[in-house]
Amino acid sequence: MIKEQTNRLKEIYRYLLGKGYFSTQKEFAGLIDYDPATVNQALKGNPKQLTNNFLLRVSRRFPEISSNWLIDGVDDMLNPVVNTQSGTENVNIGTFGGGEVNDTQVKYGKVSDSVEKLERSIHVLEAMVREKDNIIREKDNIIKELKRQIEELKKDKQFLQDMIKNK
What we know:
167 residues, two-stranded antiparallel sheet
């Protein structure tokens, strides 16, 4: 069972990486609020780290991922995508009690679980945007500091050139 869960976790990891949710294992660990070493060991199939709680955290953090599939290999890897009668948008709202949500359920408002899931997805995306904004700010500060250092080096260079001329 651990081997199969490890393979499914690796598949999810590659899928999410390809979708651009993160670019490093460390970022993935941060998104699911685990230590990078724990994530590394889970991806290697260490049963002390690759627990059902760990897998549930992954599926909660990325609601498009089926927790049933991730833990037990049941159902599809991704939760079903449901058309919303408008014909213009597809919304991934998952399942109700193990069954697929149909258009009638969506049309008549039996989607409170789905709304909560979508709200969690929005919060996740907002957190990702905030995280990316912080990274951009950090990079801007680094660029600013490097430009300052370049200016200092130019002044030092000019000073040294002037000293050489005056010798």
